Amino acid sequence: xxxxxxxxxxxxxxxxxxxxxNNVSFAVAWIKDNNIYxxxxxxxxxxxxxxxxxxxxxxxxxxxxxxxxxxxxxIYKGKYTFHPKIYVFYNITRYTAIxxxxxxxxxxxxxxxxxxxxxxxxxxxxxxxxxKILEEYFDKAKIITSDIINExxxxxxxxxxxxxxxxxxxxxxxxxxxxxxxxxxxxxxxxKSIRNFEDIKDHVKMLExxxxxxxxxxxxxxxxxxKELVEERNKIIGNFVRDNENNNIYRVFGGLFxxxxxxxxxxxxxxxxxxxxxxxxxxxxxIDILTKDTFKKIIHKSIVRNFLNSILNIxxxxxxxxxxxxxxxxxxxxxxINNGSNNKDSNKFKGxxxxxNDIFKISFNSxxxxxxxxxxxxxxxxxxxxxxxxxxxxxxxxISNYRVAFLDRYFQALKNKKR
Length: 419
What we know:
Layout: E1 2-4, H1 7-20, E2 23-28, H2 35-42, E3 50-53, H3 61-66, E4 73-76, E5 85-90, E6 95-100, H4 106-111, E7 116-120, H5 127-140, H6 146-161, H7 166-170, H8 180-184, H9 187-195, H10 200-219, H11 230-237, H12 261-267, H13 274-285, H14 301-312, H15 319-329, H16 353-360, H17 369-384, H18 387-390, H19 398-401, H20 407-418
Parallel strand pairs: 2-3, 3-4
Antiparallel strand pairs: 1-7, 2-5, 5-6, 6-7
Helix pairs in contact: 13-14, 14-15, 14-17
């Protein structure tokens, strides 16, 4: 038995269990769209008899649409409020059950003060007893039909529109009104702004070139520390300028051309950093290459955390170094956090951490490594919950492919506009 003492801890365990187990059953009062819910949808085939409440229109309408006429997920609407929070993940020989206060909402999985008990087979609680409760809820629940969705949508819309409703009064105001447009990040608005940048073709070319480098490293099984990759590593870190050419296209997205020690590591002029480069290469291998199958498929936060930790443990490498590497390898998922530079190009290539602080209220000024890692992962979670990120892939559209990386340029435009 284990006590899960925070909403984030509960969410992390649920996320981990979704990957590890073959079956999941649950009963929750409310479900809202968030990272954990998206992971649940990715494992939709694992869901067994599960029940969702709709009291106070607290469950998002899209959840009902996602499970319309489902044989495995039904809704419960009774005389009294449906209020359980039970999640069970199980295989033939083992199980993990989480029973506590957390709904499958942003608050329940990320923000609220929540608490839950984690049970396994070793605790002496029989899986069949827990499943029996879930089956009883499921038997009383209703299949989600089009008629039910139509009726529910009326109540749902009233709740959304009425600022004096119960739900609205219970939800804390997380952002000031003048910050809301940036937090919401609408696809049409942001992508249109990005397409208007004069140098956007250079940015696309840079990311395409580096994507090809990572594909070659993978398919040809070349070691990242190899001497033959000096030019490629210079492109990856944004230090690539040919002799007699004014070629600065690699210097965006946190390029390390002024990074001193970090730049020296990747250049590895005298071979003194070969072992360090080997560690960096091994860390990069944990981040899947961008393909049709991996596009926008969120990489588990434990992998991101381990990657950041590995890079930040290297003397001379900071958060800019680590997030630059993430961004150029997976521009669909990551953004570089940089403070800019004082070189001749400083007016063209400005840092973005200040504007990100202003928009998301996530600080990158801390010198504590663990805090920096946590704040970066929190930032990604907020980005992944925006319309801009969730918007469907547009075929043959580079902005669509590299959407998170390009937020760097969008944020800079906002910063310059504010001046």
